[in-house]
Design brief:
Blueprint: H1 7-10, H2 13-65, H3 87-99, E1 109-113, E2 120-128, E3 137-145
Antiparallel strand pairs: 1-2, 2-3
Length: 148
């Protein structure tokens, strides 16, 4: 036979259940806030990667158009540690510094080499460091430029 508990034995049970419910609800809200912060960080990183890819493709296109006869102008597109002497390349470096964070400490590089097959290989490395990042990120684009 089941006995019915007296009312004094049940006092405070509703309060305890309410507190446990509030605790579980609070953990859920904290998890949602954390997921939102991670989402914002990931969207920012995706934006920086897209801009880095766009900038790398932009300078590769400029080099292809302005390659000159027998690739005479491609050596002008070389950038080492963010230092460029060619006006087009210096404008590109300035654009990289304006569009991506942390590029002054992590400057872009452009290397032009002559492979054995002929033509020229251009390697563009764009680096940046997001404000909340621990380490810098980079995007490397390699293109082969040949005469049509």
């Amino acid at each position: 036979m089941k006995t019915i508990p007296r009312q004094q034995e049940q006092e405070g049970v509703i309060l305890l259940e309410a507190l446990i419910g509030i605790l579980i609800f609070s953990f859920g809200i904290l998890a949602l806030v954390a997921m939102q912060a991670i989402s914002v960080s990931n969207v920012s990183n995706a934006r920086y990667r897209t801009e880095a890819a766009f900038l790398a493709n932009e300078i590769i296109g400029d080099a292809w158009v302005d390659r000159g006869l027998n690739y005479a102008n491609l050596a002008n597109f070389t950038v080492s540690s963010g230092a460029a002497t060619y006006p087009t390349t210096q404008a590109w470096v300035n654009k990289v510094n304006a569009m991506l964070p942390g590029t002054v400490a992590n400057p872009p590089d452009i290397a032009v080499v002559t492979p054995a097959e002929g033509g020229r290989q251009i390697t563009v490395t764009v680096r940046w460091r997001a404000p909340d990042a621990v380490a810098p990120s980079n995007h490397v684009a390699i293109a082969f430029i040949s005469d049509p």
